[in-house]
Amino acid sequence: NSFRVQGLAFRIGVSFGAVEVTAGIEVIELVAAADRACREAKRAATGHVVTFGANAPAFKEHEEERELVARLTPERAPEFLAIAMQPIMSLHDPQGSLDFEVLLRARAPDGTVMPASRVISVAEAHGRVGVIDRWVLNTVLEWIDASFAQLDRTNFITVNFSGASINDEQFMADAYAMLRAHPRAASRLCAEITEGVALTDINQTRRVLERLREFDVKLALDDFGAGYTSFMYLSDLQADVIKIDGAIVESAARHPARLSIVQAIADLSRNLGMRSIAEWVEDAATLRAMAECGIDYIQGYAIARAMAPREILLGPHSAHWIEDPLIRTTLIDIAANRQVVDDGTDFG
């Protein structure tokens, strides 16, 4: 129904979520399932009523979530968490360096692979994301130190920092202590922060960035262009890298408007002395489009999928894993036509 008050129109709707109550189900499980049913009802286009029976997947999902939370402790996290690396290739010099992003991997108790996004969302919802970030940062720093001699052509290794961790003073104090204990490994790190997180508290982001620079850690603004973009804050933050949101990149070659966005971001980053990375580059057409825009680095299946740390050390450079002949030919054409705007230096 709708009604008007002092010339303003309002519309009221009702959403209803219900669950079946059976013997043996704990109250906390019922409340969680009812809340999920209500949220689904709110999202429904019609009906606005969602009911869950005793065998509904929501109950099983809630139990799995509880089990996951129980495993997200400093002691148990290493049992099911792992890291993988995905190469990031320079378009200025594809064979000149071996750079990559660290990605999270996780396994369920039965050994099946769990979506990392699911693990992170559960951790964030239950205040456990700091456990993941601490484990990842410490694991990566120790791995870099142990593999340092084999990473002589690596300029940067990007690692994601969650918003909750960036705004957690205790976590950041622990992070600074880890960086202090691994100075040469820290100099290879590039901390990735989503632009949404950066804008939530720009003063806090600036303080964190200033401290990270004390350890020679660089900053990348991730998912740039995903919906929060404000060009005004870029010069204020003075980030080192802009990672363009993959949802824009993957369709840029087919949509002129999105390609124009990529071009604008590439031009802006270059004018501000920053480097640009395009994510989700999966085919030759997108690769060529990124080169024509003057993008500095690309990341995606066109170059390589994520791999285990031991595998990344087998490659002399980030272009090592390219298998598609068309991608290789495109890279040769790009180099011949000098389509990449090159100032003679690479990031690192």
Can you walk me through this structure?
With 348 residues, the protein is an alpha/beta fold. Helices cover 44% and strands 18% of the residues. The strands form 3 sheets. An 8-stranded mixed barrel has the order 5-6-8-9-10-11-12-13. The protein has a two-stranded antiparallel sheet with strand order 1-2. A two-stranded parallel ribbon has the order 3-4. The relative contact order is 0.11. The mean pLDDT is 85.
Rg? 23 Å
Order of helices and strands: EEEHEHHEEEHHEHHHEHHEHEHHEHEHH
Helix proportion of residues, in percent?
A: 40-55%
Structural class: alpha/beta
Number of separate strands? 13
Question: How far is the N terminus from the C terminus?
Answer: 59 Å
What composes the largest sheet?
Answer: 8 strands, mixed, barrel
- Described by its quaternary structure, the protein is single chain
Spatial strand sequence of the major β-sheet: 5-6-8-9-10-11-12-13
What topology emerges from the helices and strands here?
Layout: E1 2-5, E2 8-11, E3 16-19, H1 27-43, E4 49-52, H2 57-71, H3 77-80, E5 81-90, E6 99-107, E7 113-114, H4 116-125, H5 129-146, E8 157-160, H6 163-166, H7 169-181, H8 183-186, E9 189-194, H9 195-200, H10 202-213, E10 218-224, H11 234-237, E11 241-244, H12 246-249, H13 256-271, E12 275-278, H14 284-293, E13 297-298, H15 309-312, H16 325-337
Parallel strand pairs: 3-4, 6-8, 8-9, 9-10, 10-11, 11-12, 12-13
Antiparallel strand pairs: 1-2, 5-6, 5-13, 6-7
Helix pairs in contact: 1-2, 4-5, 5-7, 14-16
